[in-house]
Design a protein that fits this description.
The chain is of the alpha+beta class. Among the domains are: about 10-165, Glutaredoxin, CATH 3.40.30.10; about 325-390, no CATH class; about 590-665, Glutaredoxin, CATH 3.40.30. Helix content is about 50%, strand content about 10%. The chain has a 5-stranded mixed sheet, with helices on both faces. It has a 4-stranded mixed sheet with strand order 19-18-20-21, sandwiched between helices. The protein has a 3-stranded antiparallel sheet with strand order 8-9-12. A hairpin with a 2-residue loop joins strand 10 and strand 11 (about 320-325).
Length: about 675
């Protein structure tokens, strides 16, 4: 049996390379083989950090008897959803339509033409109430294909047709100040005032909604918006979803109180949350937000950085087959590491009880109140982390995803500039250089790499958008024109190859020359990460503000109008769209600071601007005569460094004193 996964760049596929299942990667040849043998395709989609993917793999895919049935009656394809989000999104849509829910592992049965006719998620090896056993399902599907093949194919064609009908682009609808105000009120009605966040269990970190609320507060002065953002950020940071020893956030909380996490740590979540916490710290001066920002950046750079200076995709939820085993503690374990006095004190500080908050009387560490002795707390934290590092550690999915690394470039650049951490900006620079040097192959952007080897999967819309956004953030943080020069050709290429020509403002998630699936995906919803369309809109707004391009601004406005019904009707599923709309309503604000390099006056103006500028604004500093469009034709004022503040390409008079600049920005 050929081991077709052995050379994969996906750690998830490599996890399955030695299964007795005769796996194929996603490729034309696999469907040709199914057509030749006249058997269905079994499509299994998951990702390396997925707990239940590991469970199903151990129960079924590592079982010789189950594998024999799969090999005899199906062509089995294994897909890493993080490497092929286009494939994942289409078949997840089919799974949700057929079953009313979705998730991973995802199990779909397809015709040799790729059309789905039966979909589900996890299946146990033996039947359970309301759930068939996996082998039982294989037998039933195989029998249906053999005995009623034409009927199955007709059913698949009907399903594809129905999905196409439901995937029509949204009608145009304006996102104005009334929509933004109404979104805040809708969110207020869904806000958990007691525990922070929105809705009930399970609770996911609402990073994009937080960014919207902070931008809304900056534009309108809404204390309601700021209060919801601040309370949610504090609740997440004090609960068990946040790693109280090493920093970084787990994927979500299984309960409504942020106590017990689903332990996988994703780069995408942490990059988005780093941006939100840095924004909150800059806006309010919150020591907690500043600490979480620093610790989350530390987590990214200490635990996810690869040898090539990119950032790995995730840390696994499991350790040696046990969920969360690395992270949880009992009172006895604390005492063993710290001694009886510090152990008892730490148990009280971190909420570790004899009954536990997790399995087997163990507890996830929480920090519900600030310690009365910060120095003792830091010493205890250092000792516990050192002890934890001697435990077995979760596996790391070390592929470098363009989209998520673009998010990290953006967050590290913005946070580093605002909070005075040049090392974060340096790290962002190294990530950007890796993406530009490795992920661009044959003139086209690719989705991911591993160990410096680029993968075959083409980049999707979100990859292009976040690479552009990250490069533009670096341009602002460093003042180096090379990042702007690298970003704009990618942006122009994206507009050309991803636009929906029949629906102005609409964009597909795959390029016009990408591999043809049963339908070209285009999902406007902001989910675990921002949608490709909202990501591109943010990049267009930033580019328009930095360059003065009316074309980029018109494209951003058209995209907001095309998606307008989504933020109006479902703001929790449109957080990034709403943040984009806030930036658009604010101008977006442009701040240009001009002065000689090393000039103290220029440095003071930049420092004030970085603290006071609202989210979604652009800020660039440089010398007189700079070639950067935002600095062009702007000079000193009476021989002194000057700041130019503009709203939607209309500028105030330049100011030279930090106090004047602060007043101008706070009044904007």
């Amino acid at each position: 049996m050929a081991n077709r996964l052995a050379s994969a760049t996906s750690p998830y596929l490599l996890q399955h390379a030695d299964n007795p299942v005769d796996w194929w990667p996603w490729c034309v040849e696999a469907f040709d083989e199914a057509r030749r043998r006249d058997v269905p395709v079994l499509l299994s989609i998951g990702y390396a950090a997925c707990h239940w993917c590991h469970v199903m793999a151990h129960e079924s895919f590592e079982d010789d008897a189950v594998a024999a049935v799969m090999n005899e009656r199906f062509v089995s394809i294994k897909v890493d959803r993080e490497e092929r989000p286009d494939v994942d999104s289409l078949y997840m849509e089919a799974t949700q339509a057929m079953t009313g829910h979705g998730g991973w592992p995802m199990t779909c049965f397809l015709t040799p033409d790729g059309e789905p006719f039966h979909c589900g998620t996890y299946y146990p090896p033996s039947p359970r109430p309301g759930m068939p056993g996996f082998t039982q399902l294989l037998e039933a599907v195989s029998q249906a294909w053999s005995e009623r093949g034409d009927e199955v194919r007709e059913s698949a064609q009907r399903i594809v047709g129905q999905l196409a009908e439901n995937a029509s682009p949204l009608p145009e609808s304006t996102v104005d100040t009334a929509v933004l105000d109404a979104a805040v009120q809708t969110l207020s009605g869904q806000f958990d005032a007691e525990r922070g966040g929105f809705g009930g269990a399970p609770k996911f970190p609402p990073s994009m909604v937080l960014e919207f609320l902070l931008r809304h507060h900056e534009r309108t002065g809404s204390e309601q918006a700021l209060s919801m953002a601040n309370a949610t950020c504090e609740a997440m940071a004090r609960g068990g979803m946040y790693d109280q020893l090493a920093g970084g956030f787990a994927r979500y909380s299984v309960d409504a109180g942020w106590v017990v996490p689903h332990f996988e740590k994703m780069l995408s979540d942490n990059a988005l949350l780093l941006r939100a916490y840095a924004h909150l710290a800059r806006r309010t001066g919150s020591p907690l937000a500043a600490r979480v920002t620093a610790d989350t950046a530390g987590f990214l750079l200490d635990e996810l950085r690869t040898r090539q200076n990119g950032l790995a995709a995730s840390l696994d939820a499991d350790t040696a087959g046990k969920e969360g085993a690395t992270y949880v503690w009992t009172p006895e374990q604390l005492a063993e590491v710290l001694g009886p006095d510090d152990g008892a004190w730490a148990a009280q500080l971190f909420g570790v009880t004899s009954g536990g908050t997790f399995e087997h009387d163990s507890s996830v560490l929480q920090l519900r109140e600030d310690p009365d002795d910060p120095q003792r707390a830091e010493r205890v934290r250092t000792v516990l982390l050192a002890a934890r590092n001697t435990r077995a550690q979760p596996a790391r999915d070390d592929k470098v995803v363009t989209e998520w690394n673009g998010m990290a470039i953006t967050a590290l650049s913005e946070a580093g500039a605002a909070l005075g951490r040049a090392d974060w900006v340096t790290a962002a620079t190294e990530i950007a250089e890796l993406l530009l040097d490795t992920h661009v192959a044959g003139g086209r952007l690719r989705r991911s790499s591993r160990d410096g080897v680029v993968g075959d999967a083409a980049a999707v819309l979100a990859d292009h958008a976040w690479l552009v956004e990250g490069l533009l953030a670096l341009h602002q943080a460093t003042g180096e024109d090379r990042w702007l020069a690298a970003a704009l050709p990618v942006l122009d290429d994206t507009l050309e190859r991803f636009a929906d020509p029949e629906h102005p403002g609409g964009y597909f998630d795959t390029a016009s020359d990408a591999e043809a699936l049963f339908r070209r995906p285009a999902d406007p919803t902001d989910g675990a990460t921002p949608s490709g369309g909202s990501s591109l809109t943010g990049a267009l707004l930033t580019a328009s503000a930095l360059t003065g391009s009316a074309r980029y601004r018109a494209a951003a406005d058209a995209a907001l109008t095309r998606a307008g019904l989504l933020p109006a009707r479902a703001p929790r599923a449109a957080g990034h769209w709403l943040a984009d709309a806030e930036a658009a309503q604010h101008g977006p604000l442009q701040v240009a600071v001009v002065g000689p390099a090393g000039d103290a006056g220029r440095g003071e103006l930049v420092s004030v601007a970085r603290q006071a500028v609202p989210g979604g604004a652009v800020l660039l500093a440089g010398e007189p005569g700079s070639d950067a469009p935002l600095l062009a034709d702007r000079g000193l004022v009476e021989g002194s460094a000057a700041a130019y503040v503009c709203h939607g390409f209309v500028c105030d008079r330049p100011v030279s004193s930090p106090d004047e600049l602060r007043a101008a920005l706070l009044a904007s």
